[in-house]
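Annotated sample (chain length 310).
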Amino acid sequence: MPDPKPRAVPQSIEETLSLLEGADYVADRALATVLFLALKMKRPLFLEGEAGVGKTEIAKVLASALGRRLIRLQCYEGLDVSSAVYEWNYAAQMIEIRMEEAAGSVDRPAMERNVFAERYLIRRPVLDALTGEVGAAPVFLIDELDRTDEAFEAFLLEILSDYQVTVPELGTIKAKVPPIVIITTNRTREIHDALKRRCLYHWLDYPEAERELEIVRRKVPNANRRLSAELVRFIQKLREIELFKVPGVAETIDWASALTELDKVALDPETVSDTIGVLLKYQDDIAKIEQGEGRRILKEVKAELSTAAE
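Output written by the structure step:
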């Protein structure tokens, strides 16, 4: 299937909101504004927030809506240049050397130029992101940057400042057109100010009830409306109590999907207890809900919705 034709970036905040909405991403105006500015100013967008609030999804939606390639650099502890930027195809280089030696070549400088030609360069996500064409710049997602160490973070400064990278054997490779850069972090550690200064910043928080309900209706359209309203209210209240890890929007969607698969039309204590592992992933949190907090929250939810219906 051919790649979709690249589309122009939105020219206003309203167009940005429509772009996201057309891809079923329910955003508020503040997010649409900073995204619009990042696109117009050609600046990286630094998204910070709890896990599961939709940071990574923004890059995916943007790539899909604009018809651009999505290049994802998934960060982790120990990430290095050979994994993130480039490495040489050593096996192919050795074959080239053996073939030249077998042919009797003694021109060492020429042999070195041959084996370090660009055809032997393996492009990893960073270098790949710098190869876009005018009007078709890829979306470059640097996901969970806080998982890397400070050395790699410092290495990104040249890339985010000048959209270029230096390969010692080839020289400096500079992007013809800057990629659309989205950086995400779950704030497990602080990112250095030098990198943040090169970006536009936005804190992505948990959505309010109305917007979260709209997300559920878009992502799980076959979910019962009463069930959707109850589970969103339940999760909103769940985030107010002290838990090791409160559920994000991703867990809300998963729970709605799971309950729909079980043909549920409303919440009850047994259903909450049986499916709580979809929402919470730590035993201490689950125990707190099963020891009474879950029943208390569910009772409040039922009462509030009953009052609202009157």
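Annotation: The CA atoms of residues 112 and 199 lie 39 Å apart.
Annotation: The mean pLDDT is 90.
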